[in-house]
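Sat 14:20. Reprocessing the chain from the morning session after the first attempt stalled halfway. Input below, unchanged.
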Amino acid sequence: MPSNHQPSTLPLHGIVVLDFSHVIAGPFATYYLATLGARVIKVENPHRGDSLRGSAHGFEAFNHGKEVVQIDMQQESGRARAWELFELADVMVDNMRPGVLERFGFGEAQVRERKPQLIHCAISGYGRAGVWADRSAYDHVIQAASGMSLMAGHEGDDPIKVGFPVVDSATGILAAMGIVAAIRRRDLTGEGESLDVSMLGAALQLMYPQTVDAMATGKPPTRVGNVGYSGSPGADTFFCSDGRIALGANTPQQMAKLGDALGIRPQVEALMGPQARGFATAVRPAELRALLQESIAPHAAAALEDRLNAAGVPAARVRDLGQCVAEAMAHGLIEAWTLPGQSPVSVPGLGFRSRGLYGGRSNPHGDKESRTSRFT
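Finished this time. Tokens:
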């Protein structure tokens, strides 16, 4: 008898993910997969649980839409239950400290031998090969190891950590992308895959232009503070009467528009001198910056932001995250989703809009109950 049930249009419908991960990087990767339609079964240690359960919104934000099962891998009965779930899996994610799952017979080589078509994704601090493979890591440790903490500020400043777990988040996104690519390759070839995703690798990807330069020269980039990557005299951060504003006048044309908007174009062009192709330069950069600062200082940041953007000069007043989120939601700049449950959580989607990836819904979570099982 024909069914009236319509097949899901979610791109990962039918994919099952066995998720041995905790905290941020692994759970963020599998949250992407769950949102795109995969069935994600998160295995949690019943004695400790995920550290993010102590966060008011963190655990739900990273694990919504997953099935959470508590399994004691030290017990034979727990391992037997894990193998039952493994038989369902297309993908296995291991975000545990290197060597932990191997002790229980669930290492990459062990599970791939049992199921060659499996897509196995290992997430770790430094990768599963090399002399640092056994080292554990946290976001701020990787920022130090990768040189990221010596990118911000000026020469001679102490190391400056990025103020949020940027490496954890980027590692999760890279892992999700690798898994989706491996699923597609398996569709084409029938072959499984082993993915080795490291936090160090993610950090170097985030610093891609500077990483490429360092690989070519062996030298670190110069620390330049709050200026743009282009080095243009108009790509800098300036004081206003009530705050600060960041400008992105990177080209000679944008510098001319900036000069017009501030009423100082002749002086700006004189201090810039002849221009070649590419980013704007200055023959007297210190004087030009001083001129721009003097001209910007009397203006209120919000009004100047509007004025410069209307003139074709990229500009944004310096906001805190709370201000940014409030304005972005008010003006529809992000696609905010509400994750349903006992305590609904608002999240900024997956960072991109889509016409059809979420089955034609702007919020894939808006019309279904959470699959997350809660344990105490």
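Residues 1-6 have pLDDT under 50 and may be disordered.
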